[in-house]
Structures are given as C-alpha cells and as structure tokens.
Amino acid sequence: MKQQLLHCIEEILKQKISEERKDVLQPLIDFIQQKVQTKKSVNLNFICTHNSRRSHLSQAWAQTASTYYKIPDVQCYSGGTEVTALFPKVAETLEAQGFLVLKISNTDNPVYAIRYNEDSFPIIGFSKKYDHPFNPETGFAAIMTCSQADNGCPFIAGAEKRIPVTFEDPKISDNTPQQTQVYKDRSLQIAAEMFYVFSQIKK
In this structure, are residues 61 and 191 in contact, taking their beta carbons and an 8 Å threshold? Predict the structure, then answer.
C-alpha cells in the first residue's frame, strides 16, 4: 500500500470504537466469521439510498481492511435504492487519504477505479441499484449504511443477511466551508469501523 495510505491507516487504528457501535457491528463480524470458518466467499453489499457517498466509502474501506488483515475471498460491493452518481467529493476524499483514484468514464454517472495499491484489482465505483448485475445476486450480506434505505427498503432480494450499520450523511456539509473536514471525518469513521470488524475475524 502507498505510504500515504499506510499513514492514514495508522491514524485509523488509533480511533476508539464505542461499545454501542461495537454492538451495531457485531452481526457483520458474525456473518464474515461464519463465511471464513466454512471457507465460503464473503460478499458484502453496502446499500444507501443514492449510492453516492456512504456506501462507496464503506465499500472502499471494507475491501482495504480485508486485505490489510489478510482475510481471504472478500468481495465488497455497493448499491442504492435509486441511481444517481458517485459524489466527486468522495473520490477526492479517498485520494487525499492515499488511494489511487482514476475516473475511467466521464458521463452523468462516471465510473471510478479505486486502488489501495498499484497492483491491486481496482474497486469499481459508480452509482447503481443494489440489484444491478455488477453486484451479487445471492449469498451476500446487505449492509444498510443509511436509515432512509433501511426503512424504505424492507426486502433485499437474494440477501442472506440484512445488517443495519448506519452513518450520518456528509451531504449535510455540501456547499459549506466545513465540507472537506466533514467528508474526511466521515471517511475516517467508516474506515475505523471497517478495520475494527476485520480485526475481529479469526482465520
């Protein structure tokens, strides 16, 4: 991994996770642990309303954390209950934290290749519905990263388990002087929780 990203991870690992959040994250830990113990693929689909901010941050950091802790056969995806676009500030935030980010299509819904090192398969970031053909059809955990999607989408077809792990939307800071800091903080919070999850997995 790039030195900049490794430095960011050092800071992430210093963050404390509250007991309340640990309880929220435990079902996700249990799902991953069960898959690892039975030597099955770990498919995680992070779902938010617009698949534009929190779900992408969760996807990128969960994939990175699984690699950092050498948890085998983990694939992370993201989707929404509707399609918009990956918000540019998300790509900018991940790049500032050490990811290699390349925009590979320049449309209303651009596609990004996001890498945690130069040799890794890219995490493909673009806005899509949770049941888009790019995402798994069955055997995955649906991780609901916003309460709106969790409440508004009671049934996720094909999901083996549905796990609410909600985060406050950084969108509240858009068009304010605090935007960069709010996106950075939300990204680091999500990262810290994803690193905690994968640190608990016994191989």
Answer: yes
